[in-house]
């Protein structure tokens, strides 16, 4: 009944919006529209409720004269306001078509909007030809219901410094609302009065998380800051009570049985949710048969159940420094859904025949039953492949042929991707090692090796194959799309890298052109800078209901098929694939899925962004903590950023800190914005991007999450 009600509401909503969007429509008041559309008396409350939602969603605007109009007819757009720590910000428009750029909002035009608020923005006439500017006319929905920060105590009141630096105003806390917090407490604040002109916002403390120096409080603060759900509700736990710990005999029926084929998983040593397994064979015709077998999560996560609703709400698993916040409960993610060795598991398999040029000659996508013969780690497989005297050879004799066949196919697939222009960024990634006291004791760089590359290539080819298969079937689907960058941003990037002697050849934007620059920069002192600048010129990849190709991978068709334990888009397309295999994709079901896909894609893209921000923030906090006891030590580094307020320096272990230009003692330095450098007035000395420098650590600040260096002058 609930599903029917939702569908009826959606139909009526579309009907009202369709009426207001029609060419014949003239701005009318709500009551007049109701009379014109002949809404029955008993449906009038529902009508008002739907109109209220349309206004809240920004799809229609109620004018000062009480008439309903489309936002675009008033030169108004709907989007999310993203603030900066310096007061100004940008509105990211929901309609992300090419002609809609982010809109600049000066501090005086924010109209009380805070970071991440949903807003209506009026676009100002653009007479300068420069970036589009706007003024926020209405805040539709607050981005933050609660704000996390550090409490500072005064005699008769307190204030909270938000952890999110883009909320640039401190929050005033009247004494009666402090909950007894003292200076240094991490707290959660509810805003009870928004900021007005020069006045700070006012709030009340709803929760004290602990003192900033207590173990675990830093990560807990980030979990609260990003509103990450840590527990599953009782309905979810009740549902998973009935899920068995082993695959039942009746569940193995009507599946392709692959249990007699040699199968392995290859993951990191500490991985617990194993969602992909591999089979491989060299065929008599010289081709390769590659099977990518993915955990059949949707067998246990049925659509519309509490488990499914919780999974889409989370969107993804979040990997923080000291914990994983899973999309699914551990009973599934580490248990029945994990492709553990020696037990039967349900899978969805993409089995491909691939020739010596890397072309997929044929493929089939099947529901399968598998039994993994051995769990392998990247470290062990890599050692076997590069070291003929590896200590791991004896224990894995029966798998050696398999691993070397994997390497052969990996080389073919990798070379094919590079030939077509796939872009390979070479960024350093750090793993922060914590001690028993949860304090960081080391920062190590992740090492990419031949084994990680094998799995990466196999997942990529499976993702492309599945995406192309369902593109041609024209079924509803979730694609992983990456559009080509805007010409304007590419021109800015091209001008910048030319200072290092790099040229972007040709007027056509093609991934191969970027690839050539990255290859040329490899091994140079400016490699990191060139990688970063090119990446910043790119758009973000996102989930879309239409196939838009993947620019960075040089792929015409792409999706995420291989990680349904930790990503909802993968789980969603598994559901569609299985319904296709079982012949259950009726026209009614296709229509229903087509309506749902845009919303699912948007939610998943948004949750991915939140997870990335939270992961980045926990890494930053732990890096600051790691550097706390190293005051006075000298480090080699590279200038990674040049701004009007300081010079950023990155150390080999990825820790980044800032040098305040005013603190450079040997000269007065001018900022050259165009060339992204500082030069000394008397000495002519230059500090520029990519330059190797020596720095001394002079301060760390856990409140501000900052690291301060000064240059060691030679």
Protein model, in words:
With 714 residues, the protein is of the alpha+beta class. The protein folds into six domains: 2-71, Winged helix-like DNA-binding domain superfamily/Winged helix DNA-binding domain (Arc Repressor Mutant, subunit A, Orthogonal Bundle), CATH 1.10.10; 75-141, Beta Barrel (OB fold (Dihydrolipoamide Acetyltransferase, E2P)), CATH 2.40.50.140; 146-214, Beta Barrel (OB fold (Dihydrolipoamide Acetyltransferase, E2P)), CATH 2.40.50.700; 234-483 and 544-617, no CATH class; 487-538, no CATH class; 631-711, Beta Barrel (OB fold (Dihydrolipoamide Acetyltransferase, E2P)). The chain is built from 15 helices and 34 strands. The strands form ten sheets. Strands 6-5-4-7-8 form a five-stranded antiparallel sheet, with no helix packed on it. The protein has a five-stranded antiparallel sheet with strand order 11-10-9-12-13, with helices on one face. The mean pLDDT is 91.
């Amino acid at each position: 009944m609930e599903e029917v009600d939702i569908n009826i509401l959606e139909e009526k909503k579309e009907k009202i919006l369709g009426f207001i969007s029609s060419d014949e429509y003239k701005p009318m008041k709500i009551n007049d529209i109701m009379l014109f559309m002949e809404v029955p008396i008993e449906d009038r409350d529902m009508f008002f409720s739907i109109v209220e939602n349309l206004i809240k969603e920004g799809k229609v605007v109620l004018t000062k004269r009480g008439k309903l109009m489309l936002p675009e007819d008033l030169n108004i757009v709907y989007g999310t306001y993203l603030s900066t720590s310096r007061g100004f910000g940008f509105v990211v428009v929901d309609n992300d078509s090419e002609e809609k750029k982010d809109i600049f909002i000066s501090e005086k035009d924010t109209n009380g909007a805070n970071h991440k608020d949903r807003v209506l923005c009026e676009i100002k006439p653009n007479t300068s030809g420069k970036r589009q500017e706007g003024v926020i006319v209405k805040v539709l929905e607050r981005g933050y219901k609660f704000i996390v920060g550090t409490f500072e105590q005064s005699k008769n009141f307190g204030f909270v410094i938000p952890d999110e630096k883009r909320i640039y105003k401190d929050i005033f806390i009247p004494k009666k609302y402090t909950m007894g917090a003292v200076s240094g407490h991490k707290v959660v604040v509810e805003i009870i009065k928004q900021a007005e002109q020069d006045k700070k916002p006012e709030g009340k403390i709803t929760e004290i998380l602990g003192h900033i120096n207590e173990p675990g409080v830093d990560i807990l603060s980030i979990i609260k800051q990003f509103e990450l759900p840590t527990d599953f509700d009782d309905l979810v736990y009740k549902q998973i009570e009935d899920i068995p710990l082993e695959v039942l005999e009746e569940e193995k029926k009507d599946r392709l049985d692959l249990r007699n084929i040699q199968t392995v998983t290859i993951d990191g040593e500490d991985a617990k949710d194993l969602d992909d397994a591999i089979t491989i064979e060299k065929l008599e015709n010289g081709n390769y048969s590659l099977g990518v077998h993915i955990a059949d999560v949707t067998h246990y996560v049925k659509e519309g159940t509490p488990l499914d609703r919780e999974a889409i709400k989370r969107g993804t698993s979040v990997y923080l420094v000291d914990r994983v916040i899973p999309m699914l409960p551990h009973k599934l993610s580490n248990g029945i859904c994990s492709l553990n060795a020696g037990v039967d598991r349900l899978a969805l398999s993409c089995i491909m025949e691939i020739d010596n040029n890397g072309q997929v000659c044929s493929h089939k996508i099947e529901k399968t039953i598998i039994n993994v013969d051995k769990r392998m780690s990247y470290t062990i497989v890599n050692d076997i492949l590069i070291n003929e005297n590896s200590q791991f050879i004896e224990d894995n004799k029966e798998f050696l042929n398999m691993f070397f066949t994997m390497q052969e196919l990996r080389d073919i697939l990798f070379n094919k991707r590079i030939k077509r222009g796939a872009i390979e960024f070479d960024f350093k990634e750090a793993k922060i090692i914590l001690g028993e006291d949860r304090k960081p004791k080391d920062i190590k760089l992740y090492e990419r090796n031949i084994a990680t590359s094998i799995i990466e290539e196999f997942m990529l080819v499976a993702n492309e194959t599945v995406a192309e298969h369902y593109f041609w079937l024209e079924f509803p689907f979730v694609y992983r799309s990456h559009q080509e960058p805007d010409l304007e941003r590419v021109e800015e990037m091209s001008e910048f890298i030319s200072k290092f002697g790099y040229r972007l050849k040709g007027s056509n934007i093609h991934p191969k052109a970027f690839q050539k620059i990255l290859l040329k920069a490899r091994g140079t002192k400016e490699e990191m800078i060139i990688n970063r600048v090119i990446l910043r010129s790119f758009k973000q990849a996102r989930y879309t209901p239409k196939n838009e190709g993947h620019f960075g991978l040089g792929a015409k068709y792409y999706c995420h098929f291989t990680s349904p334990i930790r990503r909802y888009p993968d789980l969603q397309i598994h559901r569609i694939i299985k319904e296709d295999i079982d012949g259950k994709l009726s026209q009614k079901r296709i229509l229903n899925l087509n309506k749902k896909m845009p919303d699912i894609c948007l939610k998943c893209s948004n949750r991915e962004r939140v997870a990335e921000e939270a992961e980045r923030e926990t890494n930053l906090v732990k890096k600051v903590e790691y550097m706390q006891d190293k005051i006075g030590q000298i480090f080699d580094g590279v200038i990674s950023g040049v701004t009007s307020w300081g010079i950023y320096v990155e150390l080999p272990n990825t820790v980044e800190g800032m040098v305040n230009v005013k603190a450079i003692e040997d000269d007065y330095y001018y900022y050259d914005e165009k060339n992204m450098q500082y030069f000394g007035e008397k000495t002519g000395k230059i500090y520029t991007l990519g330059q190797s420098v020596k720095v001394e650590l002079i301060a760390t600040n856990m409140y501000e999450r900052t690291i301060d260096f000064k240059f060691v002058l030679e």
